[in-house]
Design goal:
- The chain is α+β, with helices and mostly antiparallel strands.
- It folds into two domains: 74 residues; 144 residues, Uncharacterised protein YcnI-like PF07987, DUF1775 (Immunoglobulin-like).
- It contains two helices and eleven strands, in the order αβββββββββββα.
- Helix 1 packs antiparallel against helix 2.
- InterPro entries: YcnI-copper_dom (IPR012533), YcnI-like_sf (IPR038507).
- Keywords: Membrane, Signal, Transmembrane, Transmembrane helix.
């Protein structure tokens, strides 16, 4: 007479749930770092730095990014890097002699396609503050606009459209930035992927625990 162990279906259900958790963690993680980031190797208070903005195309409608406007903290000087397929315009205040923003506009047929990103660089004089933010407006070819201007949430959580930020050092060797891409781009990508790696490890651990549970059930069934 066969022996029926009702614990086996439960174990299989647990394994299926763990598998679902693992798949979800593997697919949701990368979205957390698909934002506009600012980075610099020489960001110090009151100094001039080359700031790089990494801009991904996040359109879910197949539209290209065709314009990018970055607000500057009324800096004393700014220069943009020549970028093929794009024109740059600085918004200067003639009375104060400061620069309030920079806008890049793509030439017809150009822009950032879906699933790609572009790097926009500007040499800018930074303010004498601990941190500096760069509210950014991203415009798509279908007319949609995304504003990257939200501060960190209470407790340090990340909002849906975080403002690109840099933490400024106090000397030539003090470029220790942290918020939203405030490390060089290679390190930035490593840091951005770390939540995804953590999620994968947790999902893998759940699978192992579920598999061990099934093994125990099978052993008890045979005994």
């Amino acid at each position: 007479m066969p022996f029926h162990d009702h614990r086996l279906p439960r174990a299989l259900i647990a394994l299926a749930a763990a598998s679902g958790l693992y798949v979800a963690s593997a697919t949701v993680g990368p979205a957390a770092w698909a934002h506009v980031h600012a980075s610099s190797d020489s960001a110090v208070r009151g100094g001039t730095a080359l700031v790089t903005f990494q801009v991904p195309n996040e359109s879910d409608k197949g539209a290209a990014t065709t314009a990018l406007t970055i607000a500057l903290p009324n800096v004393g000087s700014a220069r943009t890097e020549a970028m093929p397929g794009w024109t740059a315009k600085l918004d200067r205040d003639a009375a104060s002699g400061t620069v309030g923003s920079v806008t890049w506009t793509a030439a017809p047929g150009a822009g950032i396609p879906v699933d790609q990103f572009a790097l926009f660089r500007i040499s800018v004089q930074l303010p004498d503050t601990d941190t500096v933010s760069f509210p950014t407006t991203q415009t798509y070819s279908d007319g949609s606009v995304v504003k990257w201007d939200q501060p960190l949430l209470p407790g340090g959580g990340e909002p849906e459209h975080p403002v690109p930020m840099l933490t400024l050092g106090t000397g030539p060797a003090g470029a220790h930035e942290h918020h939203h891409g405030s490390a060089p781009i290679d390190h930035q990508l490593e840091q951005s992927n770390s939540p995804d790696n953590t999620a994968r490890l947790l999902g893998g651990a759940a699978l192992i625990v579920a598999a061990l549970g099934i093994c125990l059930v099978l052993v008890r069934r045979r005994t």
